[in-house]
Every structure is written in C-alpha cells, then in structure tokens.
Amino acid sequence: MAVKYHLERASELATAQLCVVSPVFWQRLGCHLDPDRFVDIGASIIIQACHAISAETGQPSVPLIVAQRLRRWHEEGKVAEDRLVYARALLTTAEANGDLPDPDAFADELAPVLRRIAEREALDAGFDAFGKKRDLTKMEALLAGSRRIGVTNTSAGLRIGTAALDQVFTVSRSPRLPTGIQELDAAMRGGVKRKTLSLVMGGPNDGKSCFLDQVVSEAISSKRPAALATLEMSSEEHHARILANLCDIPIDDAAEYEDSRKLLRERLELLEGDGFLAYCTVKDFTARATTVLDIEQWLDAEEQASGVKIPVLAVDYAALLCDPLKKARHEEMTSIMESLRTLAVKRNLWLWSAHQTTGEGMDKKTKRVDNAHAAESKGVPRTVDFIVTLNNREGAEVLFFISKNRGGERGQEVGPLPTDWGRGRIVMGRRDGWPF
Fold first, then answer.
1. Which helix (H) or strand (E) holds 391?
2. 171-427 falls under which CATH superfamily?
3. According to CATH, what is the number of the domain 9-148?
4. Each residue of 389-422: pLDDT tens digit?
C-alpha cells in the first residue's frame, strides 16, 4: 500500500486544483504525484485524470477537459456518482477561485515532501536488493527520479520570435554575483548568473580555497546570505580568512597581537551593528563521506533555523564529496558535478566550488591552466557552467583565465595582479562604500 503524503486537507485540494489550472505547477510537480497517496478521494481522482490526459496530450489542459474525462469514467463504471459530483465541484471551485496559492511557491513547499518519500522508497529498494544479492539498478533509478521532483520542466520549448524577447531579456538582466575582484568582475560582466555551477581551478596552494572565501565575503558584504561547506580546511580557518577580508586586518596579526584582535572585534561589531553584513554560515563536513544530498539537507536546516533564504553556496571542494552508487572515480566525479548543478537550478543558487588540476599543470605554450587540465574526470569541465583558472606566479601575482563561460565570452586573461593572501583576499583591492 502506498505511503500517504500526509498533507493537510486544504493542501491536498489546492494541489489537485493547481494541477488542473496551472501548467507550470503540473510540469514541475503535478506530473510526479501519485494519486494513491492522497487521502481526499476527490483530489485523488482529479490527479488520476490529469495523468491520463497528460499521457495523451502532454498536460491536463483546463478544468472542463478534466471534468469530461471524469464523466466518461463514470459512464464506463470506473467512478461512482457521489465521487464524480464531489470531484466536479472541486473543479468548478478551481476554475472560479482566484485565491489559489502561487504555483511556483506552492511547488517549492511540496517538493521536499515528495522527494523525501521517493528517497525512502529508493533506500528500501536498495536494502531489498542488497539482501537478495541483486544489483542496485532500481535504487539508482528511484534516486535519479527523486532529484527531478520540483526541478524537471516538461513544458513545450520557447518558440523563437518576438514572443520570446521578454523572457530572453529577463534572463539576461538577472542579477549577477561578483567575486569582489574588480578586474575579473569586469571581464565577467558583473559576475556569474544565478542557477549556475561555477568552478575555480588550479594546482595545490594556488589559492582555490581563498578564492571561495573571497566570493563568500563579497556576497555577504553585498547583503546576500551565504553558506560555505568545507571538506578540506577547517571551518575556523575559513572564518579567519573571511573576517580578515571583511575587516581589512591580516590574519596573522589578529592571531599574534592583542591590539589587532581588539581592532578586529571593534570593526566586526561596527559591521554587524550598522547592518553591513548578511547572514553567513560555515560548516565542516567529512571528506569522501559526504554527498550532495547531505549538503542540501544542511541548507534546509540552516534556512529553517535562521529564517533566512540562502542564495549563495560555496563547497570547498567538490572532489571531496562522494556518490556511493558510482564505482568508477571518473563516473563518480561527473555524477557529483551533475548533482551540484541540479542543486543550483533547483534552489536558484549561485553555487561555487573548486577543483584540482592534473599533475601536468599548465599548458607549456600558453603558460596557463585550461579546461583540459581538470583532474579525475573529463565530465567535470563539461558539466559546469563557468570556469576560472588560477595561474599563481610564485605567490606574488596571480593571472586569472576564463576558460569556460556558458553565459558569455570566454578566453579572457585578467592580470597578472598582486596578491593579498594575508587579508584573506586573492588580490589587493577595496570595496566601495566600506567603512575601512
């Protein structure tokens, strides 16, 4: 017997009604619903009719079409009279009701409930297969399906023409997340767009983690809440860099001198008291034992506890995550990157991570790192939306190279620019309007 969704009755009715009147809701969530999991019989048979119509035409269309399908089923003896009357009343209400919840917002609320049930079924299938010494193909398919709930859009494509202009311009004008490195941001036309997975790539000690700290510092200084999941450095080290970056005080000075610690505290209190900073959280995770789902569940917990929506996520770094369903390392890395990109789209995030280069390092001709130097999997550069590489010049200077950019130009070199590691920054610079 199917596990019920355990929604409030009003939520069940609104869900069924939105499936009929909102193509957007049906495409994102309705097409994933199981009618047998609804307690309200009217909601259940409406969604059942929506699935039947969708299988034939692509979407439920309008209440009248759904009502006609229910009438046909009644005449065929599949739906009792009392259930038909009740369901048709719900359809009439849906057509006339202007108080239904916003389809996207309601889908955002329901999607985690559905995903959790789907994940539980996947685990049950996995335990059953493991006990019977079978492969885990069914579990993998169920998990893949759970990730699509609330994300997959089954709508028709956007037809080229004047009707597409408004949507195209809306996307192009969407806010961008800067790095805080002015010369690099100028080359990126202000930064990266939302719903993108961006990657900073370089060799050992080239400054990948510091770059992520720079991005997080810039985000919270521009009033964008941020979260940083660290699988390499400790959360304390990340905190120290971010504070040094924001307060313009060298990390070592704050650790060694009492006067510097006092000044750091005073400046931090000023930033907090005058509202310069957005919410920021940093958490340690276990390397090679943490999944993308673990990161997402942490975000859920942080947002619930703080009451703050977090649009910026940095993961230091993706190669230290794991996907226990993939045996080959190159397949695992590709799957991890695909899952992170799905997370960015699903949660409307600016998502940054870091990745190591291969042992060969930089190209001998160009003297810089490019996509070809990504370690472990060719699927990494193929999957991400934006890649900037760090080309460290003996620690004193760094050359940035935009080696991939789905949303704009690629191939630009920025720098070399003088570094400022001591203050938790990749390069020297100041923020406009900052008090120090």
1. strand 386-393
2. P-loop containing nucleotide triphosphate hydrolases (3.40.50.300)
3. 1.10.860
4. 998 877 789 999 999 998 788 889 998 999 999 9
